[in-house]
Amino acid sequence: MSRRSNSPYFLLTPAMLTTVATLAICMVVLMVLAVARQSYLDIDLTFSTHNVELALTSPLILKLMVKSALISFGVTLLSLVLAYPIAYLLAFDLTRNKLLWLMLFTLPCWISYLLRVLSWKLILGYQGMINTSLMGLGIIDQPIEALLYNSTSVVIALTHAWAPFAILPIYVSLEKIDRSLIRASGDLSDTPMQTFFRVILPLSLPGVTAAFVLVFIPTFGDYVTPHLLGGPTGVMIGNFIAMQFGASNNWPLGAAVALLAMLVATLLVCIFIAGSRHAIKAIR
Hints:
single chain; mainly alpha; MetI-like fold; 2% strand
């Protein structure tokens, strides 16, 4: 057997080709649907830009797009703030049983996503754990209704669900840092804070960028969490798309909005990556 056939890239080729082909087929289907028209229960494949124009000009769609971007940015920022100290602890302070600690910190990922979302419904509900505890302590007289069925509950649940995924790329980035650079910074009379901002943070920004992409993209299009916890004020663009393919039975509009959402998410991610690269150069 040749050396080429034993290479990992060659062995991954079938899976990669299958994945790329599947994604390409889905994209082609969405593009075809986006320029079609819904004719009662059938889809008229006659070329039309009506749904594309509607997706670009509808105030409701644009409002949901902006709202989804803001919620996703908030979730991603909270996830990074929570994940970075944990990844730092794993990389620099916990010298023994790192794998065990890493497994414990990512334990929520082992549980069904739907169960994790529903658990927050029990915690934040009108008679949930938080309201019951606060009333038992005498802090409040009536349950707080604002904890559930709004954007805040969506942000909390999404952060809990995706923060563990941000730990891994940041941890890998911190683990790869040459420890001699940190020692050299200390030898040059830098304080621990100066060492962090001059050495550790710039070298870990690639991991932070990867964590941003890993969290932002799926939360931008999430529709399960807003559907279960968002209520009327916590609806995101994913819910609108799901409604078009479901109850509204308007697949062409759903396809057009889905393509627009992918384009917006891609542009926002590219802007963040470009900004992070500029920040790395500025710090260095």
